[in-house]
Design goal:
The structure is a homotrimer.
Chain A: H1 26-40, E1 57-62, H2 67-79, E2 83-88, H3 100-109, E3 114-119, H4 124-129, E4 137-143, H5 149-163, E5 170-174, H6 181-192, E6 197-201, E7 217-219, H7 222-226, E8 231-234, H8 239-242, H9 250-257, H10 261-264, E9 272-274, H11 287-290, H12 297-317
Parallel strand pairs in A: 1-2, 1-3, 3-4, 5-6, 5-8, 6-7, 8-9
Helix pairs in contact in A: 1-5, 1-12, 2-12, 5-6, 5-12
């Protein structure tokens, strides 16, 4: 269902939708990260609200369940003073056979301003972005195996915050890269920002050699993959991969690719460890690492609110 | 469960509940439509909010699922600055065996101001309206096969907006009139507003001849039913009617009563096509008509927000 | 899972979490009740809102369904102008195997201020309270069979409101005391406030003799239990107790312990009847009593909003 074109920028190159980190320029990404810096402090205030989106209607359209991600967008929109409608799509008209675009047309007719959308089909948010009128904005909260751009942007924010200039860093992404929209979006963001050394690390079933064309170096051992890395991003291993053809078991995965204190010594001594959450302790990551001094996993969550506030406020301020 | 009396008006004839278009006077309906006119512009504003119901508590009590209708009330109340509580009744105390009126008493004790209520039993909102204290208001969002008054009012608004004076119009309602609360509420509203020519159109199983007593002409062919009509309202065909005794199949229905560009030529050339949504493309209506220049289906949705804002603000301003 | 210590007070003895009425001093309880008095009038106002928690984030974490209780906290927080996130935990990351504390850490990283928490495991809110940073507050909305402190506090408010000084009162708690967190929390609150005569009343299977150690007199007949009582609190009989070893049937229970007008004559003539709701008419209580002049069940609901506002505003104003 992936469609062509780059509908996320207007003719002035300004962000009107956020669909993917692919197709964003370095200036677009840096503008989002710089704007997010201002919002990080909002969540520290006594009154955690700014009136930027007051009276705007944000619809959270989660065709795929994700309470965690939906909550982050709900909070981000609420702290911008928007009115948020959380739509439980499984129970809505779409289950009466209404098409996605009919649903979107109806909500647009209710004067929606922003759609935050998660969908199991890759490209669904593109379809919607190309369909809505100019004053309506679409933010992709994860589509199929394709993209999860706000996760990648909060990861970029986190890396920049802890490690500074991305031009000098080695970043390793460990796990089920093949099926991960987080990995794809991160690779695009990292290469766009000029990261000179991006590595994807995992067994051959989850990290095939032909992933090299994305601009990342493919490594099939953890030692090679994280050696001297500044940043190690562990991906979540989906339960459905753990049995069957791709992986013998989660224990077997942990034995070869789980991040432990011992193995983290292969990376730089000041390397940070990231994870999009929720973590599987003892599968991708040992508790000693997840709760240890190198982990910045909860900072990712904090920055995620600020980055989503930045994205919403930027797209809502631009016209198509 | 339908109860007697007209509890929706106070002794001054002012609207204190909205239960049905039956029993409303022309002045009541026109007051709602005139008030809605002011609210249409609110949803066009940069800040889509007015403070009319600030600090009021609106409870959306949907005993029957309808994410779409619930969302329209949620948005309408929020744009009036009310605090909205959406109650997932399937999971609430009623499933612990609490009676409807005990639930209402409890929510009233929490200082509810307005109940928006959908229920599978006809008359349930009457029961509640007759039970609550004078300062509490009930809006029927659909009860059984009985009434769906806000849908009818938004339909009246739409007709008035596009076609002007209802006194000169021919309006055809096509489909499963027998089981449709939308049809019943529309017939009452149209006759009250002085529409001289209301037709109900469909197969004998769905439009029995004795429906004539409601003040509508019964037509069993589409050609007769929509000939020279100014307004054609297609009803949604419920899936549960499509198999079994009432209808052989949805294809068969479309063959005889589906609105196509070709058949719409029977109506006036400037006729409008309406539908309460969600539409079944290729069942009640062909996509060429649903997406064509005569369709005003999405305008109905837009006006629906304004009409619901009008109803809420009017009832909340009157005492029982 | 019950943990030790009294994490609900800071070193100045101020309330920072509300986990149980056990461990609260008389001054703590009276401070909550006095504060609630001010909030009762807020729900009577035209604009039912005060700005005390504006810009604060309250998370309703209901690991056990209770639409009614969740709604009261939602309303209480909204009337304090907080931003409320209702988390449907059954569908969230915890179902992906994330631990309770990982969920809490993530929400804390989103800048949560208050967690309202219901959990099937006794002690779960203690675990969370001991884990969160100092500026985050936990309110127990019911944990296993352990405690339901806001219910007990609203019961104390109700008793004080209708009967005045608790030092002179006889209070009978009737029903499944053994499995009731409401009963446990009420006994602690009553004895702390100096109630000289607390009785627990029910069959031996539901009120074993060794409950006397909690400071209540055990009575196995209703007549003995409510004789000359000023306050009769009927507990809800859970459906799961009605069949099986503990009780032969709900009819049998009603025959011996159901509150009827006739039996209420054993109590003082001005005794009040309370119930945490939702009531089972004809099981714990006859409709003539539930709807009669002695019942204050709906006042409990009204005061419950004020008490929850009081608890939230007090804990949010104190540092750990």
């Amino acid at each position: 269902m992936i469609t062509r074109g780059n509908p996320q920028l207007n003719r002035n190159g300004e962000l009107i939708h956020l669909l993917s980190t692919e197709g964003l320029g370095k200036a677009n990404i840096n503008h989002i990260l710089d704007t997010a810096t201002n919002f990080v402090s909002v969540s520290d205030r006594d009154v955690k609200k700014v009136p930027l989106l007051r009276g705007k209607s944000v619809f959270n359209l989660f065709f795929e369940n994700s309470t965690r991600t939906r909550t982050t967008f709900d909070i981000a929109a609420t702290r911008l003073s928007a009115d948020v409608v959380n739509l439980d799509i499984a129970r809505s008209s779409t289950s009466k056979g209404e098409s996605l675009l009919d649903t979107i047309d109806n909500l647009t007719a209710m004067a929606a301003d922003v759609f935050v959308m998660r969908h199991s089909e890759s490209g669904a948010p593109y379809l919607v972005a190309q369909h809505v009128p100019k004053h309506v904005h679409v933010i992709n909260a994860g589509d199929g195996r394709h993209a999860h751009p706000t996760q990648a942007l909060l990861d970029m924010y986190t890396i920049r915050h802890f490690k500074g200039d991305i031009h000098n860093l080695s970043v390793a992404i460990v796990g089920d890269v093949l099926h991960s929209r987080v990995a794809r979006s991160n690779i695009h963001a990292l290469t766009t920002l000029g990261c000179p050394d991006v590595r994807v690390v995992g067994p051959r079933t989850l990290v095939p050699s032909d992933m090299a064309h994305m601009g990342a170096r493919v490594c099939h051992t953890l030692e090679e993959g994280i050696r001297d890395a500044d940043v190690v991003i562990a991906l979540r291993l989906q339960n459905e991969r753990m049995s069957g053809a791709l992986l013998p078991s989660s224990q077997e995965y942990f034995k070869h690719f789980g991040l432990t204190t011992e193995r983290m010594k292969w990376a730089k001594s000041d390397a940070i460890v990231m994870h999009p959450g929720p973590i599987n302790r003892g599968v991708e990551i040992d508790s000693a690492v997840a709760d240890g001094p190198q982990a910045v996993i909860l900072s990712q969550v904090t920055f995620g609110i600020a980055v989503r506030m930045a994205v919403m406020s930027i797209v809502a301020g631009n016209e198509g």
